[in-house]
Amino acid sequence: MLFIPNIIAFIILLIGGLNWGLVGIFRWNLVTAIFGGFNVGAIIVYVLVMLAAIWLIISAIISMGKIWLRPERDNNKK
Fold first, then answer.
1. Which of 9, 42, 58, 72 could bond 52 through an S-S bridge, CB–CB 3.0 to 4.6 Å?
2. pLDDT tens series, the chain, 78 aa
């Protein structure tokens, strides 16, 4: 399985989730604060969050519900 893309997707989704939490609680958008409004930079960040979510959904479907963050150990090896 691909582990690094899953970790990157999780990190991006965590950042996106924190941003939406700030929007919901304080009505303050970190992304637009960083980029000075809703512009190309903010759109890129939002698209990256969307792609990370799609990646994890597809990854879970392909792996039958398991999202791998680290390689599975082979317990049969001695």
1. 9
2. 557 888 899 999 999 999 999 999 999 999 999 999 999 999 999 999 999 999 988 888 887 877 766 666 655 555
Gap between the Cα atoms of 13 and 11, Å rounded: 5
**pTM for the whole thing?**
0.78
Give the separation between CA 13 and CA 7, rounded to whole angstroms: 10
CA 16 from centroid of its chain's CA atoms: 7
Q: Rounded CA gap, 31 and 16, in Å? A: 9
For residues 3 and 70, the answer to whether their CB atoms sit within 8 Å is yes
